[in-house]
Amino acid sequence: MQDMHPHLKEVLFTEEEIRNRVAEMGAQVTKDYEGQTVVLISVLRGAAIFMSDLAREIKCPIEMDYMAVSSYGNGAKSSGVVRILKDLTSQIEGKHVLIAEDILDSGLTLRYLINYLKSRNPASIEVATLLRKKTRLQADIKCRYVGFECPDEFIVGYGLDYNERYRNLPYIGILKDGIIQD
Ligand code: IMP
Ligand code: MG
């Protein structure tokens, strides 16, 4: 594999592992939504990379839309109080919505978002998350598709950032202690 970024202490998932897993997830989605149209929704910015790869592995018709939210309280923690910075462009009433999320940590952001989207009366709403952290405290979110379980560490790459950096790494890894300043 290519050289690991010097700010990382460990690679968790290689480019190839991610590609294979995303292909499996896409195949499952294709099967589950046969004969239907799926509206993929991603939360900017982290999940955009995962969603664009997942989209290409789904063989049924899809639409794509984006939301941007900011979680109050910055740094590495999420507060669950969410402000919508960019709303959906399209109508989702009566449609099958699949939220593509990069990582489920506390689940607070997603819980808010699911409730918000439910108020628009979609036919169904499901979640595909690439990563799910093994944390002590997780809101009760049902994820129909989970790419990988990951340790409760701060991870970056493949869309995930720390202070907007590292999103472009094609693999996912754990940041070295000392890089995170909180
Ligand atoms: P939650 O509301 O705690 O589930 O926060 C989820 C969001 O926090 C994700 O969509 C990410 O943007 C961000 N996040 C959580 N854990 C990490 C991490 O380890 N690295 C980078 N971003 C993370
Ligand atoms: Mg995110």
Topology:
Elements: E1 8-13, H1 15-32, E2 38-44, H2 47-55, E3 62-71, E4 82-86, E5 96-104, H3 108-118, E6 124-133, E7 145-150, E8 155-156, E9 172-175
Parallel strand pairs: 2-3, 2-5, 5-6, 6-7
Antiparallel strand pairs: 1-9, 3-4, 8-9
Structural description of this entry:
The chain is of the alpha/beta class. The chain is built from three helices and nine strands. It has helices at residues 15-32, 47-55, 108-118; strands at residues 8-13, 38-44, 62-71, 82-86, 96-104, 124-133, 145-150, 155-156, 172-175. The strands form two sheets. The chain has a six-stranded mixed sheet. The protein has a three-stranded antiparallel sheet with strand order 1-9-8. Helix 3 (108-118) links the parallel strand 5 and strand 6. Helix 1 (15-32) packs across helix 2 (47-55). The longest helix has 18 residues, at 15-32. The radius of gyration is 16 Å and the shape is globular. The two termini are 31 Å apart. The relative contact order is 0.21. The model has no long low-confidence stretch (mean pLDDT 92).
How many β strands by DSSP?
A: 9
Order of strands side by side in the largest beta sheet? 4-3-2-5-6-7
Ions and ligands: inosinic acid, magnesium ion
- Share of helix, binned: 10-25%
Order of helices and strands: EHEHEEEHEEEE
Mean pLDDT: 92
Could you give a short account of the major beta sheet? 6 strands, mixed
Tell me the Rg in angstroms: 16 Å
- How many helices does DSSP assign? 3
Unreliable sequence segments: none
Could you say which structural class the secondary elements and strand pairing correspond to?
A: alpha/beta
User: Which outline best applies?
Assistant: globular
Report how far the terminal alpha carbons are from each other. 31 Å
Q: Report strand %.
A: 25-35%
